[in-house]
């Protein structure tokens, strides 16, 4: 044990002289009667999610599954995306085809990762997500299939995220509960995204877009 | 080390009207926004209670939780270092950085690294630490000090920032629109991010149970620094622990609404050790004491360690609003700084010992605190300690101190009813010389300090008891 570690632990134990020896951490009760489970109907939750994401100045569209590929191609056209980053495991049938759209796909694969330069040089990235939280309009990524490494959703200036309706929960609490087991077992990196990057550092006036993607678009898919 | 007292410094800042306008505008804006997002939470009070008890649980068993954290971070592929003070922490970090043979590191905004003056320690070894948070960058370029926990450059307005960027970032043509200023910073920092080999961050939270570390931010610079470099070094105070992953459901509701007044801030990064093929492949966690165990030892002061650095208390404080953060001479300004700084630095430092008096005890800070730190209580407790210290240090001298004598006399008067009533009668006669038009606006000698800034109501001609007595007869 390092000198410093020993000294710090000893100081802590001396500082806590009045804590009874037999006291266990769980002996200090924590009130848990805050909202843990949402009570809205599924349709309401989706509408709430769409509204809240929109309030962050992200673009939100609700899309039917069979129209998804067309909407994606259209979004890429509108945003001027010519080089689109695609994470490993993203469903191929949703992607714009090479022939009819002017989009080049940059696939990020294990063993063949895209360089930071290539990502910085791209125009956008398309991903799925792990979960959506309606209460706060948050998208959660856990680096799973279709989402890829963290850097993929960081360097491109435009992030197009596909959220399935059944992936949306109502409350923040439900969001954290969802990942409890995964964090304990595999510990994947988890990223919460609530709107495009922003700053309020200058006179507290909010500016969308600093270092992360400046434009966020969310497509909510109904199967 | 001695810092100037709050009273001395506040005077100068109070006469800076530009500064007062900048801070007043900013704090009022965010205050109202916070209230709106807090009001939409029906369970806010339960969440505060939960946050407070979770922190209480951590503090009472800090040694066990720290060992648990160390073990979980190791299991997840990270390395843990322990530092007793700033010097030790800086040594550890400098050595880690030098091992990577780099001349520049990118930093996420971290008050803890400001507290230990890490940038200076790195500079002494030839390493440039680049602040990447917009406000921190502004402060760094200006050679200035942060003045707010959340918005370190709150004291600067857009015109001042434009001038700074024009000079330091070689931006000839630049408007003062916040959008353009942010764009200038984006371009400047993007190159730096892409070539960075080492990132340094603080931590908002670390989970004892899983070893997960969290950084909460808005701009994306935090994600850049914790994702792009090959090596990540995180410095955290030993009090930043939470027991389990699930407890985020409490703190990640309390923090954004209290801090930036948003339902959720744009980006939260949670990482658990290292992940193969994704992000830094080397992760170091430096656990810092630097006076925190002294705070822990004071049963009343201990709750100060519950702080999650949201800065809500700054934004509602009538004192902070007028003086700004620099008057506190600490990286922790405002009400929380007024209790944290003197406990971290010790009351020997006259400047630190003046901070518990930088308050009207109005209690607004306690009301907004998301983890229910009773700041007024701790302020009064610290004032008591300061007076005791003075008494001990002063000996005979203190006994002839007019304030001390006055307080002793008051104490005697309040001890018995007959003495108290006699004192009232004497005061009623004595005050006649000073009452003008129903108020006392000028007292002589030692008492003149009281009336220099405010009027005093005279003691009424009849007390309630006297009135009651007359009425019966």
Describe the model.
Chain A: Residues 116-221 form the LUD domain. Chain A: It comes from Fodinibius roseus. Chain A: This is L-lactate dehydrogenase complex protein LldG. The complex is a heterodimer of chains A (223) and B (473). In chain A, 26% of the residues lie in helices and 22% in strands. Chain A has 223 residues and is of the alpha/beta class. Chain A has a single domain (40-222), classed as NagB/RpiA/CoA transferase-like (Rossmann fold). A 6-stranded parallel β-sheet of chain A has the order 1-12-7-4-2-3, with helices on both faces. In chain A, strands 8-5-6-9 form a 4-stranded mixed β-sheet. Chain A has a two-stranded antiparallel sheet with strand order 10-11. Among the domains of chain B are: 49-132 and 197-310, Rossmann fold (3-Layer(aba) Sandwich), CATH 3.40.50; 401-472, no CATH class. Helix content of chain B is 53%, strand content 11%. Chain B has a 6-stranded parallel β-sheet, sandwiched between helices. In chain B, strands 8-5-6-9 form a 4-stranded mixed β-sheet. In chain B, α3 (44-60) crosses α12 (248-259) and α16 runs parallel beside α19 (375-394). At the A-B interface, α1, α4, α5, β9 and β10 of A face α2, α3, α4, β1 and α8 of B. β9 (190-193) of chain A pairs antiparallel with β9 (267-272) of chain B.
List keywords for this structure.
heterodimer; A: 223 residues; alpha/beta; Rossmann fold; six-stranded parallel beta sheet; four-stranded mixed beta sheet; 5 helices; 22% strand; globular; B: 473 residues; 24 helices; 12 strands; 53% helix; 11% strand; LutB/LldF (chain B); iron (chain B); repeat (chain B)
């Amino acid at each position: 044990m390092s000198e410093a570690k020993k000294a710090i632990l000893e100081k802590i134990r001396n500082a806590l002289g009045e804590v009874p020896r037999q006291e266990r951490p769980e002996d200090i009760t924590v009130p848990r009667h805050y909202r843990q489970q949402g009570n809205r109907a599924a349709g309401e939750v989706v509408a709430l999610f769409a509204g809240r994401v929109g309030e962050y100045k992200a673009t939100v569209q609700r899309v039917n599954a069979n129209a998804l590929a067309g909407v994606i191609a259209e979004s890429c056209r509108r945003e001027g995306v010519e080089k689109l980053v695609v994470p490993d495991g993203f469903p191929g049938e949703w992607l714009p085809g090479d022939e009819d759209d002017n989009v080049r796909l940059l696939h990020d694969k294990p063993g063949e990762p895209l360089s930071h330069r290539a990502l910085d040089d791209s125009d956008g990235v398309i991903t799925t997500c792990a979960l959506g939280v309606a209460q706060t309009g948050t998208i959660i990524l856990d680096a799973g299939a279709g989402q890829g490494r963290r850097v993929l959703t960081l360097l491109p200036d435009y992030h197009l995220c596909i959220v399935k309706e059944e992936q949306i929960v109502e409350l923040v609490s439900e969001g954290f509960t969802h990942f409890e087991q995964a964090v304990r077992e595999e510990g994947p990196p988890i990223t919460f995204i609530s709107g495009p990057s922003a700053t309020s550092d200058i006179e507290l006036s909010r500016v969308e877009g600093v270092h992360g993607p400046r434009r966020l678009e969310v497509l909510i898919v109904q199967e | 080390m001695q810092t100037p007292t709050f009273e001395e410094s506040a005077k100068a800042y109070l006469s800076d009207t530009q500064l007062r306008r900048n801070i007043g505008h900013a704090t009022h804006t965010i205050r109202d926004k916070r209230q709106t997002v807090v009001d939409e939470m029906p369970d806010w009070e339960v969440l505060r209670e939960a946050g407070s008890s979770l922190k209480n649980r951590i503090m009472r068993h800090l040694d066990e939780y720290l060992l648990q954290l160390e073990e979980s971070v190791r299991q997840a592929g990270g390395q843990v270092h322990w530092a007793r003070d700033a010097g030790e922490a800086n040594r550890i970090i400098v050595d880690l950085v030098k091992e990577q043979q780099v001349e520049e590191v990118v930093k996420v905004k971290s008050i803890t690294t400001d507290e230990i003056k890490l940038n200076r320690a790195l500079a002494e070894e030839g390493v440039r630490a680049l602040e990447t948070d917009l406000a921190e960058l502004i402060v760094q370029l200006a050679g200035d000090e942060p003045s707010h926990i959340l918005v370190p450059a709150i004291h600067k307005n857009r015109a001042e920032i434009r001038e700074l960027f024009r000079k330091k970032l070689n931006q000839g043509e630049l408007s003062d629109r916040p959008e353009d200023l942010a764009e200038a910073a984006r371009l400047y920092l993007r190159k730096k991010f892409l070539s960075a080999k080492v990132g340094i961050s603080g931590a908002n939270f670390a989970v004892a149970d899983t070893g997960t570390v969290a950084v909460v931010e808005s701009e994306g610079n935090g994600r850049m620094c914790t994702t792009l470099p090959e090596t990540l070094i995180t410095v955290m105070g030993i009090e930043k622990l939470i027991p389990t992953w699930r407890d985020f459901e409490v703190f990640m509701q309390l923090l954004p609404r209290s801090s930036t007044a948003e339902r959720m801030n744009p980006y939260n990064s949670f990482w658990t050790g290292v992940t193969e093929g994704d992000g830094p492949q080397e992760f170091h966690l430096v656990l810092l004491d630097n006076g925190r165990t002294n705070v822990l030892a004071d049963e009343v002061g201990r709750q100060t360690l519950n702080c999650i650095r949201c800065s809500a208390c700054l934004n509602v404080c009538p004192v902070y609003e007028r003086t700004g953060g620099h008057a506190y001479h600490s990286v922790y300004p405002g009400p929380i700084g007024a209790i944290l700084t003197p406990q971290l630095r010790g009351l020997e430092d006259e400047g630190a010992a003046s901070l518990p008096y930088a308050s009207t005890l109005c209690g607004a800070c306690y009301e907004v605190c998301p983890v229910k730190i009773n700041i007024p209580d701790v302020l009064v407790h610290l004032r008591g300690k300061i007076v005791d210290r003075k008494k001990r240090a002063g000996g005979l001298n203190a006994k002839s101190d007019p304030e001390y004598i006055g307080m002793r006399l008051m104490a005697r008067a309040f001890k018995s009813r007959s003495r108290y009533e006699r004192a009232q009668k004497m005061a009623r006669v004595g005050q006649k010389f000073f009452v003008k038009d129903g108020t006392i606006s000028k007292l002589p000698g030692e008492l003149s300090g009281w009336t220099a800034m405010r009027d005093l109501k005279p003691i009424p001609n009849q007390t309630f008891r006297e009135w009651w007595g007359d009425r019966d007869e």
